[in-house]
Design a protein that fits this description.
- Helices cover 19% and strands 40% of the residues.
- The protein has 2 helices and 13 strands.
- Strand 9 and strand 10 (157-162) form a beta hairpin.
Amino acid sequence: MKKYLVLLAAGLLQAGASAATTYHFTSAPYTTPIFNHTDNCASGTCADFTTAMAHSGSFTLNTKLGPNLVHADVSSDMTSYSFSDGTTPVFVSNGIQERLMSAYVSTDAVGNITASDIVVMRWQTANHLAGGRLDSITVGAVSYANGICNAVSSPGRCTQVVGDASTSQAAIGPGGPGWTPVGAAIASVPVDNPFALLLTGIGVIGLTLRCRQKLAAVRLHPG
């Protein structure tokens, strides 16, 4: 029975360690001055930012963030994201025009996010080349709407954005809720309390072994 318990405990601990985790974000509103487009939007799709708008959204990692991270790159562990700059549409990971440019986080002693550098761009034009139009969000910092890509790296990653009379730009003000503590963990098999499940598993294993012992006794001493 000891062997069964060891295997069960190891499996439950592994499931908990590899659980996907979602982190949520809400910023303070945009601060003044806001630089909205000044023409009739002759090029691209324009948007207007206001001080009633803010950044919000979330991302999911395939594992929980560790403690005391300093500007750690989590892009390879990010399975999905969704961020809003206050306008529509939102920046989503499954969008064909979106590009995750960077995803760095720092954490405190218990793994909560204390700082981030997450940049997402969304092409407006199907041709992802220099001169193309795009929107971008640096989460918790600044937004661009209908900017112009000035330089591109492969594949279709804009490395420099500039503006013109059709571009809007707004910066997030200080304060705001920021990143919430660790979000709900979702393992491949949802477990509210792994240790409670471990105890349940122990009971099931014990019951199974007792049934086998009784069956063996019946076979050795038939009525």
